[in-house]
Design goal:
Layout lengths: L11 E2 H7 L5 H9 L3 E3 L2 E2 L6 E2 L5 E3 L2 E2 L8 E6 L28 E3 L6 E8 L2 H8 L7 E8 L4 H6 L4 E3 L2 E3 L2 E9 L2 E8 L6 H8 L3 E10 L2 E2 L8 E3 L2 H8 L2 H7 L24 H6 L62
Parallel strand pairs: 9-15
Antiparallel strand pairs: 1-4, 2-3, 2-5, 5-6, 7-9, 7-17, 8-9, 10-14, 10-15, 11-12, 13-14, 15-16
Helix pairs in contact: 1-2
Length: about 350
């Protein structure tokens, strides 16, 4: 039976529990079972198709597994040149190799192409990752784009009605011209669908070649003044406010279809505005469209989205991946800095 479906047995698959505890990914947990490294209540497992409950005692290499950390979310300013994947067969640098060592094992919410910069959300919880990536969530993603060529404003406005390219239908895109700078144009673009390389392919159809792409926001979570390569945790109260009744399902680990924590490329802030009452009743999530502040090449703050590109910063080292009670490696809880103070 697939992990995607509700099991007829009590509890959760052992691989899912290990992933939620921050020990490893589900795929790695399956390998560890095959290697005879995982035991439940003193009995070594020979198959990953085994459900466990809170009463069961799981050990890895003889060490008891710690309780999972509470669900957490971080904003990360991804630099260009990093791949959003746990392992790259071509040996390129990955996002996870450059994260601070103090972070627990995390997964990316969606993904950014190797040359795309800007906001990338990270979470330690597979259920939260799944919820934020669901198409039904429909959060707006905002970008600033630099492209070579001359923009036709009439064609840009037509993107609001969608466009079909080589048989692929792209839904509504809000695109506007900021300025022409030499042979390049600067554009503001916002979309909800987020198909693979969507912005680059759409602009190519308009005779524009993207040479810089910066994501400014993902729903209510915004890049703001976060320096390149830096990570900041989103305060828990902001998560509760934005996720509404979905928050409890994340905490309980009951998000439907939560299949995160795989070692693979996954497809796809300032404090946000409160959710409306009508949205709260329907359990929907709300985003915000407030102007953002980003850095120009000289490090000065602009007043709105028409500012220039952010300055580059230094990257950190990769995080540790294991979390055992006896080893003392469980990461200490970090206080999230408030995003409400000047980071919209």
């Amino acid at each position: 039976m697939s992990d995607e479906k509700t099991s007829q047995f009590e509890g959760d698959r052992v691989a899912k529990v290990l992933a939620r505890a921050g020990v490893c990914s589900r795929r790695d947990a399956e390998r560890m079972v095959a290697d005879g490294r995982i035991a439940v209540n003193g009995r070594r497992l020979d198959t990953p198709a085994f459900n466990v409950t809170a009463k069961d005692k799981i050990t890895v290499d003889g060490k008891p597994v710690a309780e999972p950390d509470p669900p957490r979310l971080w904003r990360y300013h991804k630099p260009a040149g990093l791949v959003t994947t746990a392992r790259d067969p071509q040996g390129r640098d990955t996002v996870f190799q450059k994260l601070p060592a103090s972070l627990p094992r995390v997964n990316a919410v969606g993904r950014l192409d190797i040359n795309t910069e800007g906001l990338l959300l990270l979470t330690n919880d597979g259920g939260m990752k799944r919820l934020l990536e669901l198409p039904s969530t429909g959060w707006l993603r905002r970008y600033r784009v630099r492209a070579f060529g001359k923009a036709d404003e009439a064609k840009l406005k037509e993107l609001k009605h969608g466009i079909t390219i080589d048989g692929v239908n792209y839904k509504s895109i809000d695109a506007s011209l900021e300025r022409q700078q030499g042979g390049n144009v600067w554009l503001s673009m916002a979309l909800r669908e987020g198909k693979n390389r969507e912005i680059k392919r759409v602009l190519e159809a308009l005779d524009l070649k993207v040479n810089r792409l910066l994501r400014l926001s993902f729903g209510p979570f915004q890049l703001g003044q976060l320096d390149e390569g830096k990570v900041e945790e989103v305060p828990r109260r902001v998560l509760r406010q934005q996720l509404g009744k979905n928050w409890q399902s994340i905490v309980d680990g009951t998000v439907r279809g939560a299949s995160a924590d795989k070692d693979e490329d996954t497809s796809a802030g300032a404090e946000a505005t409160p959710r409306s009452r009508s949205d709260a009743k329907r359990g929907k999530l709300r985003d915000t469209a407030e102007p953002l502040k980003v850095r120009d090449p000289k490090g000065k703050n602009a007043k709105n989205q028409s500012s220039n590109k952010p300055a580059r910063g230094d990257s950190k080292q990769s995080p540790k991946g294991r979390n055992f009670k006896s080893s003392g490696d469980k990461p200490a809880s970090r206080k999230g800095s408030s995003d409400a103070r000047g980071r919209r």
